[in-house]
Amino acid sequence: MPSGARREARDLLRARLQLVRQRVRCTNAIAGLLAQDNVTAPAALPALVQLRVQLLQEQLALLGAQAKRLAAELNPVLLPTPDVQRLLWIPGIGRLIAFTIWLEVDGIQGIQRFPSARDFVSSCSCCRLVPGAGNSGGKARHKRTKDGNRYLKLAFTHAAVRAIQYYPEIQRFYRGLARRKPRAVARAVVAKELARIVYFILRKQEAFNGTFKGTPLSRTKQPKWPRLASPPV
User: What is the dihedral of CA 69, 75, 78, 83, to 10 degrees?
Assistant: First the structure.
């Protein structure tokens, strides 16, 4: 259980995630209404259906404004934190993902609960990045599990997608795995490696050394973290 001040910020960030999920539902609902009538523009829909689309669009605008407002409230509180500044240099980790990781782990106090990186990334302890085991009859089987922190799993999964998009060395590592394993498994391995980096940075209070699995990265982030358009995968 995090401290009082961090708990308030963590719950606010979780509330923002719920707003984002509601925006996705609205977007999907609009797409469904367009597909239902096989049209590409709301103006081509019947009048009553256009009203439904208009209401959904108003909800989209409201939810987006509320999500931005919550993020703006957290920026001055969390951005100056030294741990957050260290996390921002890790591949794939942006401002909101860094906030999520730091608050869900509970900073340096929380990371001390895990004696090793393996304990940190395992499904039953925290990050849910290692599948659970369903061993029976002398056979070892992996299975999905809901143990651990789902917010950390989501944060590291999103970070892995961004890291694969922007960093050639990580992309090559991912593609090498994807040739032998399902893409979801390869992406989970990248997420696990990012979680290991986070563990050692928080545990040792060190800056990111610019490597991924011992390979120096050819790309480094700018001191001012820019919001970039997502390149194609």
Answer: 130
- The Cα 32–Cα 175 span in angstroms is 33
The DSSP secondary-structure symbol of 43 reads G
Query: pLDDT per residue over 138-161, tens digit each?
Result: 555 555 556 678 899 999 999 999
The full DSSP string for 195-232 is HHHHHHHHHHT----SEETTEEPS----SS----PPPP
- Tokens 């980096």 appear where? 197
Which H or E run includes 183? helix 183-204
Neighbours of 52 (CB within 10 A): 15
Instruction: Give per-residue burial for 77-103: e unless 16+ CB within 10 Å, then b.
Output: ebeeeebbebbbbbbbbbbbbbbbbbb
In this structure, the dihedral spanned by the alpha carbons of residues 230, 68, 83 and 165, taken in order and rounded to 10 degrees, is: -10
> What CA–CA distance (Å, rounded) separates 99 from 103?
6
The answer to whether the beta carbons of residues 53 and 41 sit under 8 Å apart is: no
- Distance from the Cα of residue 146 to its chain's centroid: 17
pLDDT tens across 99-109, in order? Answer: 999 999 887 77
Q: Are 20 and 67 in contact (CB under 8 A)?
A: yes
